[in-house]
Specification:
By secondary structure, this protein is an alpha/beta fold. It has helices at 18-25, 58-66, 68-72, 81-92, 130-141, 143-146, and strands at residues 6-10, 15-16, 34-36, 53-57, 96-98, 103-105, 123-125. It is built from six helices and seven strands, in the order ββαββαααβββαα.
């Protein structure tokens, strides 16, 4: 993790376009950040971290390394890893950067339903079988990428 500016974790049923994410992260390079991607209700300014995509900067990973016990001592039993990670980053004082408009996740109350033909989304989730996943990738990537 120390050789890259950001670490990205994805669910295997997420269709991901890393080139679209890179441009969004440029302004945060060198800063401790993690991303949230689900606006749980209309006025939610911070959002929730849903596991389809989790992004942590190298500096956020360093904050975790330096104060690992803070996160290990959270009452994590019964939590998913995404819920734990958000609480961990909050406990460490790492600010969240919302990717609400760039992720479409049908498990998020206000974050799903964008068509795969949307060429601006970084993630489409969930696409549970290989055919559905591939069809979505082709629709979003466009014919110029599929032909390569």
């Amino acid at each position: 993790v120390w050789e890259s500016d950001f670490t990205v974790k994805l669910d295997p049923d997420a269709v991901f376009f890393p080139d679209r994410l890179g441009g969004l992260l440029l302004g945060h390079k060198g800063k401790p950040i993690f991303t949230t991607n689900c606006r749980y209700w209309g006025g939610d300014q911070v959002g929730k971290l849903f596991g389809s995509i989790e992004v942590l900067s190298k500096q956020a990973m360093g904050a975790y390394k330096g104060k690992m016990d803070t996160c290990k001592n959270l009452p994590w039993q019964g939590w998913g890893e995404d819920y734990w990670m958000q609480h961990c980053m909050n406990a460490l004082g790492v600010p969240a950067v919302g990717l609400f408009d760039q992720v479409t996740d049908n498990t998020c109350p206000l974050g799903g339903g964008a068509p795969c033909s949307d060429g601006k989304k970084i993630v489409f989730h969930p696409k549970k079988d290989a055919g559905q996943w591939w069809d979505c990738w082709k629709q979003s990537a466009g014919p110029q990428m599929v032909a390569k």
